[in-house]
Amino acid sequence: MAGAQNDGLSLAERRRRLADKRAREEAAANPQAASADGVNATPEFPLASLVHNPRNARQNMEGVDGLADTYEATGVLQPCLVIPVETFRAAFPENAADLPDGAYVVIGGNRRLAAAQKAELATLPVHVGVKLKTREDILVAAATENIAREELKPFEELATIEELKAELGTYDAVAKKLGKTAGWVSQRRRLHNLEPEVRQALETRAPGMTIELARDLGKIKDREEQLKAWRVAERAADRSATPSAGKQPKAKKASKVPAQGGPGGVGSPLEDAEVKARREACLLAIVAGTGDLARLFVIAAQAPADADEAVALAGQWLTETSVGSSALDLATLSGDEGTDRQKLGALALALARCELHMTRSGGADSTHARAYADWLETHTDYQPTDAEPAPAA
To answer: How far apart are the first and last CA of the chain?
Structure first.
């Protein structure tokens, strides 16, 4: 019966046999790599015989100096993946003139090669990809290693996806080849939509910019709206980075939280201004996606609010901040968008519960109102109105 030779073998034993088989294939392809005592070890090739992949997605190899220092002290422990130059030329004739005869092209481990060259090592351990023959095989192998090691910057990752798409025909095929979901690929493609200013902020790692935020901003097609959302996040980052030790504590005024009824109550100009200020602060908090979330969730859990209204208000905020109300959809909580959007959904829902309770009660629940207002003041630019309500007639 097919596969009977594996009956009774443990998973570890089957893995060992597979590794031995691959080692024999490599040794057969590179008989010069056998050690002096005749035992096949990981091949060590002279550095002079190894060349960088001219199609390497990594435009700048960072950390080479530190890696070179490590190699000088301990040697290179992780082999590079290489293929003969003739194989590479056959797959990429447009790059044939860039490569010397008799060399091996590094498909996985170009940074290791650069560090070994800097450390002036004589040889480098390699694995020869004997099964990498076609253009598709080589592109997928290089992309898989780089992405699995998280060695690519966001736009390098995007360029890799686009190159694979040109070869494979569809983004679904790219996702399948890389072992990723269609949503994973879709998230990264949003970077195509970034305005130059936002793109530069991501490339230079500007304060407040994260890859998650960049992908969310990429969903905003209108230029001005995208730039506005980025400026809001940038301001929030500036505020969070400002040291608070030198600040003088602000006096706590009961009048900052309007009481229900009277000139400062629900429906008054003062109340309308307060609601607007708080809700703008909530939007800012969702864009920033930071803050003491545990404290907010405790406050929200004690805020009586209609569940449907809270979901509706949170969904409105998520839509306005381009996160999307689907972050609250129970059916998609385990989907491709991941935990980042779920975190923002939870943040928006907690704020919505607090805000609805605050609006309905007009601050009558002073302990809860103060806790909610303090959270907004701490994590956003929210400043309650200082005006005192007029005395009742």
So the answer is: 97
Task: Tell me whether residue 101 is exposed, middle or buried, using C-beta atoms within 10 angstroms of its C-beta: 0 to 12, 13 to 18, 19 or more.
Answer: exposed
Q: Taking Cα atoms as reference points, which of 92, 102, 108 lies closest to residue 56?
A: 108
CA atoms within 13 A on the CB side of 66: 3
How many other β-carbons are positioned within 10 Å of the β-carbon of residue 352? 26
Helices (H) and strands (E) in the chain, counts: 16, 5
Structure token pair of residue 24: 């024999």
pTM of the model: 0.47
What region does 338 belong to: left with phi over 0, alpha with psi -120 to 50, or beta?
left
Q: What is the pLDDT of residues 172-205, one digit of tens each?
A: 999 888 888 888 888 888 898 999 999 998 888 8
In the three-class reduction of DSSP (H, G, I as helix; E, B as strand; rest coil), residue 106 is classed as strand
Distance CA 197, CA 207 (A): 14
Count the Cβ atoms, other than its own, within 10 Å of residue 159.
14
